[in-house]
Specification:
- The chain has one domain: Rossmann fold (3-Layer(aba) Sandwich).
- It contains 8 helices and 9 strands.
- Helix 1 runs parallel beside helix 2.
- The protein starts with 6 loop residues before the first strand and ends in a 5-residue tail after the last helix.
- The radius of gyration is 17 Å and the shape is globular.
- The strands form 2 sheets. Strands 3-2-1-4-5-6-9 form a 7-stranded parallel β-sheet, with helices on both faces. It has a two-stranded parallel ribbon with strand order 7-8.
Length: 253
């Protein structure tokens, strides 16, 4: 129970990687505020997690890229539990598109959610954590596409590389308050969304040196380490979880 009585916010957690992180945190004793844009996804996720554990998960549906909603999430944590120990900025969107025809509305939407949502959640959370005796931990979800080029993902890749630079820069700002900040970069991962593609697992099993795509549990286990007491002296770092793909980087196209 390494997270017993810790308080965490996880965004974009109605399914997939975020959901798995919430489930693991709750099993390890944390109070988790689970966010997703989709109200039904958030509520169903919380219901499932609480049925498996001690009922320490709370639904916070809403737009994690909206600055007013971000403030309300942090305020909810403080009003319910008196503090905020862990924030995992996992919400993000992927809008594929050919660079030569990529529309401005898609570009700015990706930046608003992936960059704006992460930046302002970190800001609001840090303003709470800096007044706490033990500070806190921030974790941002990046991607292997922030390290290696991927066709039709110029805007998305740009946003993920920027998130990693944000974490590095915040080391200067947050370390004096006992707040560490890191990023995690998943590679190809089997989630509800990717499993909709019948060729996804077979394709990425061939392209990944370890012989399979990541499971959501692979990413969740790495994420929990980075926000645990065992990683308190790790800050400004990025952990790639991709079965070795970025070492050779074959394209699925």
């Amino acid at each position: 129970m390494q997270f017993e009585n810790k308080v965490a916010i996880v965004t974009g957690a109605g399914q997939g990687i975020g959901y798995e992180i919430c489930k693991y945190l709750v099993k390890e004793g944390a109070h988790v505020l689970l966010n997703d844009l989709d109200h039904s996804l958030a509520d169903n996720a919380v219901r499932e997690i609480n049925q498996e554990s001690n009922g320490n998960c709370i639904s916070l549906p809403g737009d994690a890229s909206d600055s007013f909603f971000i403030k309300s999430m942090v305020a909810s944590s403080v009003s319910k539990f008196g503090r905020l120990d862990i924030v995992i900025a996992n919400a993000g969107i992927t809008l594929f598109g050919d660079f030569f025809n990529y529309p401005p509305e898609s570009f700015f939407k990706v930046m608003q959610v992936n960059l704006g949502g992460t930046f302002f959640l970190a800001q609001e959370a840090a303003n709470q954590m800096k007044h706490q005796p033990l500070g806190g931990s921030l974790l941002f979800t990046s991607s292997v596409t922030g390290h290696q080029a991927h066709k039709d993902l110029a805007a998305y890749s740009m946003s993920k590389a920027a998130i990693e630079m944000l974490a590095k820069n915040l080391v200067i700002e947050l370390s004096p308050f006992g707040i560490n900040v890191n990023t995690i970069a998943p590679g190809a991962t089997l989630t509800q969304r990717t499993l909709d593609d019948p060729n996804y697992e077979n394709t990425w099993s061939k392209l990944t040196p370890m012989g399979r795509p990541a499971l959501v549990s692979d990413i969740a286990n790495a994420a929990l380490f980075l926000v645990s007491a065992n990683a308190r002296h790790i800050t400004g770092q990025n952990l790639i979880v991709d079965g070795g793909w970025t070492c050779i980087s074959p394209s699925p196209y």
